[in-house]
Amino acid sequence: MSQTVDRALSILPLLAEGPADLGQVADRLGVHKSTALRLLRTLHEHGLVYRQSDQRYRLGARLFALAQEAMENLDIREIAHPHLVRLNEACGHTVHLAVYEEGEVLYIDKVDSRYPVRMYSRIGKPVAITVAAVAKLLLADLPEPERRALADKLEYPLYTPRSTANAPAFLRELEKVREQGWATDLGGHEESINCVAAPIRGADGRVVAAMSVSAPNVVVTAEELLTLLPQVRRTADAISGEYSGRTPVGDPE
């Protein structure tokens, strides 16, 4: 039975390359045409493949509907949380997860620092969008016209001397973040707090969330915090792999 399932599932990536006839499917699977036909009929009955008028087969609409439903039901917070906890246990600092929704960047998860000096960020609270490292990553991934339109309508409060001052400066920072694939906030919101962040990407490569490690400079200097960047990026990549389905749950990272 497992061999039958394996063969049936092997048909789907073949058809993802384009329509194929019975002979092509049989050849790819290394089976007789009668076996390939039984597999195709079963997949057809479930709407996963469709037989065209030219007798070739292509992927069925039901497959796309299932994929869309699965994507809509994915909970990035549930997937990311164990990874955030492990990173927090390794470094000891505050770890955040954020998403971009309706013009705001919101924290949707947080694992507190083990040190006495802690951040007062809260889950569900919007971040300082023009300076936060997670915001830079999420906005840098937007199409350029959308980035420019958003930058033009934002206000640019000077929280500290290191805050982003205006739209041109913000757009330059977003372009830099887009190119390097990570972001920082080194005293831009609070002079005493530094942050380094990495993007979490979906199966299409787009940024779906961002995660960060933050710490006050009385606990760790900005230079010391930046040494955690490779670990932060590995954690973000592990979450991306699980979220997009590239890395099955439980596989080594």
What distance separates the N and C termini? 30 Å
Mean pLDDT: 89
Largest sheet: 5 strands, antiparallel
Shape: elongated
Unreliable sequence segments: none
Count every helix, treating DSSP H or I runs of 4 or more residues as helices: 10
CA radius of gyration is 23 Å
What level of helicity do the residues show? Answer: 40-55%
Number of strands: 7
Q: Assess the beta-strand content as a share of residues.
A: 15-25%
* Alpha-beta content class: alpha+beta
Order of helices and strands: HHHEEHHEEHHHEEEHH
Record the strand order, biggest sheet.
4-3-7-6-5
InterPro entries: GAF-like_dom_sf, HTH_MetabolicPath_Reg, Tscrpt_reg_IclR_C, Tscrpt_reg_IclR_N, WH-like_DNA-bd_sf, WH_DNA-bd_sf
Pfam families: HTH_IclR, IclR_C
Organism: Streptomyces incarnatus
Protein name: IclR family transcriptional regulator
List the helices and strands and how they pair.
Blueprint: H1 2-16, H2 22-29, H3 33-45, E1 49-51, E2 57-59, H4 61-73, H5 76-91, E3 94-101, E4 104-111, H6 133-140, H7 144-153, H8 167-180, E5 183-186, E6 193-201, E7 207-216, H9 222-226, H10 229-244
Antiparallel strand pairs: 1-2, 3-4, 3-7, 5-6, 6-7
Helix pairs in contact: 1-3, 2-3, 5-10, 6-8, 7-8
Structural overview:
With 253 residues, this protein is α+β, with helices and mostly antiparallel strands. Helix content is 47%, strand content 18%. It has helices at residues 2-16, 22-29, 33-45, 61-73, 76-91, 133-140, 144-153, 167-180, 222-226, 229-244; strands spanning 49-51, 57-59, 94-101, 104-111, 183-186, 193-201, 207-216. A five-stranded antiparallel sheet has the order 4-3-7-6-5, with helices on both faces. The model has no long low-confidence stretch (mean pLDDT 89). Keywords: DNA-binding, Transcription, Transcription regulation. Pfam families: HTH_IclR, IclR_C.
